[in-house]
Amino acid sequence: MTRDLCVMPDASPLEMPAQNFQSVFRDGAAPLGDVPRTAVLWRLLAFGPALAATAGLVWLMVGWFGDDGMAAMETGLVTLIAFNFFWISLTVSTVLLGLFRLTRKEAMPAPQGPARPLKVALLMPVYNEVPWYILGNARSMLEELRRRGGGHEYALFILSDTRDEAIAVSEQAAVEAVRATLPEGAQLYYRRRAENTDRKVGNIADWVRGWGGAWDAMLVLDADSLMTGRAIVRLSDALAADPGAGLIQSFPQLIGAHSVFGRMQQFANGVYGAALAEGVASWSGGEGNYWGHNAIIRTRAFAASAGLPHLQRRGGRTALIMSHDFVEAGLLRRAGWSVRFLPRIKGSYEETPATLIDHIRRDRRWCQGNLQHLNLLATRGFRGMSRFHLFNGAIGYLMSPIWFALLLMWALIGPSEEASVLSYFSETNPLRPVWPEMTEGRHVLIIVLMYAMLLAPKLLGIVAVPLSGASFGAFGGAGRFGLALVSEIILSILYAPILMVQQMIAVFRIVFGLQQGWAPQARDGGQYGLRTLAICHALETVSGVALTLGILIGVVTPWLIPIAISLALAIPLSALSGLSLAGRARSWMGTREDYREPAVTRTARIYRGELKAMLERPAVVQPAE
């Protein structure tokens, strides 16, 4: 067992007290200001149309069902549809606002007095990660910053919570190798904790309490994060220019995907994400959110305002706050600091899970953390928008059981009064609600509207390509872009019902206490055997086969055919998701970063290869004299 390497600067302690959720806190150093009127206007423009569209749909549905009064089951159906439709409409209105904002010149904050250079620590918490990968990225970022300059001082800290001793040995060897290659002035530090108390939350807090006093800001990275020097400098400049900002979040672009599922996610992020991100930035204003990485944070503001306590549970037990980032953003805003989102800062990158199963496993962790946020909605002093971010994160998962309930109810209704699944709907049942004929034109129109609203953000995202300063040529030309667009839409339609069922499973696992642990994310993914696929997707397969049989015998509405096909084919679709694309197929669903690779990703790939070869080289045993 090797001695742990610890290469750190002199200690500079900084107090970081745990916050009390039951009392209001105000940081005396924070220049608290009201929400700008422009942000209020943006919120009216985003939420107003969504509410109006939902009210209009409810009016139509009540007219549809209310000819002979509203039964309880009918009222439940209308309520579920309305709830779903509001969140769909909010996404559409947000994208429309984003398109409008993309036509306007970006407004960076004007410096309030001369902005002094900042000392910025790049923090990369790691836990049983691939050493050559994270250190290759670290070296490329440090060298970019060294070449770019910009006035600020930077250092990168590898904050290890690695438990696997073999990985720890390789981790430390990679750190020493990179330190030996860095130019003079580039700073790379490493610390491995003896115990990984409180996971990533505790890892960051440990650095703040031990060394945070020497650094004006910390830029938090994930193990798969990669940022250009320009992006890091722009974030630093923005924080220096805005003394009221406690946190500034960038918009990470997905890169490096080589599987079918990864390419689908990467293309969606690269094409549709721009307009959605701009829209979110418009109505969140200075009350934005934090995604846990690729964001710069004012160190003293974070230490004074965002220390996380353990949550009290029944029986005197405590629980760690899992999805800490949303809560930390809310605490910073509560203390008087603004939390901003700057989606136009380019050069912020991360990776995505390679397969559907890897995505599901990560999603279960996120679901556990986001549902935990429901317990924090009553936190004293939280701003309304911070509560909305917490609620919105939880709703993202709770919507799946709601969608599944809608799917079940539509299946039970059947195509008409004469063709339904249960005898409950027969003429002999006096409690039978009078369901409308699903073949009536106005009702078909409503169903088509639901499908159209789900596709609208994707179709509107096409408009964002030229508005964001790119061209279809950057995606390989109009022909390749069109093929990629159609492919992504088809794949997203096929995978969406599977993800709905899996998120519903995740919710029920948490509700019934079956979700255990917080395993590290699988970065590379891989192909899974038939047994694993069958166990993972059993519920989808059974549901899909039942729906398909119901459609074939005429007791389930044919409007559910796309969902039935997806669920019935969940196992082969999951196997397809991990198919690795090679050769010319690797350009399928390509993004700008594929056709014109950024220098930082190319350099990082080279450094990762060098480090991998070095770490895998057999040790030379010296002969005994």
Describe the protein in words:
This protein is an alpha/beta fold. It contains 20 helices and twelve strands. The chain has helices at residues 37-65, 72-102, 131-148, 165-181, 199-211, 229-241, 260-271, 273-284, 299-305, 324-334, 356-372, 384-413, 441-467, 478-511, 530-536, 538-552, 561-568, 570-577, 592-595, 599-616; strands spanning 119-126, 153-160, 188-192, 217-220, 226-227, 245-249, 253-254, 295-298, 311-312, 318-319, 338-341, 348-350. The strands form three sheets. A seven-stranded mixed β-sheet has the order 3-2-1-4-8-6-11, sandwiched between helices. Strands 5-12-7 form a three-stranded mixed β-sheet. The chain has a two-stranded antiparallel sheet with strand order 9-10. Strand 2, helix 4 (165-181) and strand 3 (188-192) form a beta-alpha-beta unit. The longest helix is centred in the C-terminal third of the chain and has 34 residues, at 478-511.
